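pinned: reference chain
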Amino acid sequence: MTIKGFGIKLIKGTILSFLFVLAFSFFQPDLLESAKVKLMIVISILASLFQPDYSPFKSAKDEHDKGTALHIIWAVYLSQIFVLAEFVFNDYQGSMQWSVISIIGAALAIFGLLFRSWAFLELGHYFTWHISVTENQKVVDTGPYRYVCHPGYSGALLTYVATGLMFHSWVAAFISLLILFYAFYRRIKFEEAFLAIHLGSEYLEYLKKRHKIIPFLY
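pinned: its structure tokens
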């Protein structure tokens, strides 16, 4: 990643993160004073740095992508909107407090972010926004790819669902689980079919030895 590219991602991530929060601060003016909200902003900014550059409004889609890239990013946006909405409009003062569950949620969100970032760094230039392969691409089975087939999706799912737990946004956490899991399920279906064609038997063997995103479950 170039310094210019890093800077652009940092600026975009920061602006977008603050816009989300500022929209809800009209209802709770002291929202930015919450340590939970500050942590959410930091996680959002860091998440934007460790992923390919993207546009949430780009309507064009690759024939192999089937719109899954936009599906994922808007599922993430909606999940965090639901989390903040439940936090602000349902027992705001109570949800401001830290509990054992909210601490666990924060820890899981950070772990998910680190796991996804590790996947991004391990895959390098193979980590793309749309489904694609590069010339002479090889199957990567090191780092987090030793544990699940799609650790980037695993980390994102954990991060954004756990954020709901951190805010005591129980309904939003459940909704986030559903919409994010479905978004990743669609992406994985098209991605694996495409990569199996282009990477062949080595990739099929890789898939057989690991669960997709949730160890022991899926």
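why pinned: The chain has one domain: 3-208. The helical segments are 3-25, 35-49, 68-89, 92-96, 100-123, 151-166, 170-199, 201-208.
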